[in-house]
Amino acid sequence: MIYNLALTLAQQPEVVERVLRVTRHRGFKITEMDMHLGDNGTTRLGMVVESERALELLSHQLNKLIDVTECKVLPTEQLATQLAHSASA
User: Fold this and answer.
1) DSSP category for residue 65
2) Which among 47, 48, 55, 76 has most CB atoms closer than 10 A?
3) pTM beyond 0.90, yes or no
């Protein structure tokens, strides 16, 4: 199964490493990733992940990370649109 996630993160040096580690430990493969720094001290991270496991195994653990302020599951077409807009900007 392919899943799309949109995360809002605090701008901390180690936050992306933590997200990647949790993703790997939960058995998900990242197939696409897009990251943008915000002006308000946050980072937006879009990820497309693939796994036969239930997405809740990953999203629940990501929400537990202290520097993750939001983790949303997006429909496939919504993330594709978001990634296309950020690539053209």
Assistant:
1) S
2) 47
3) no
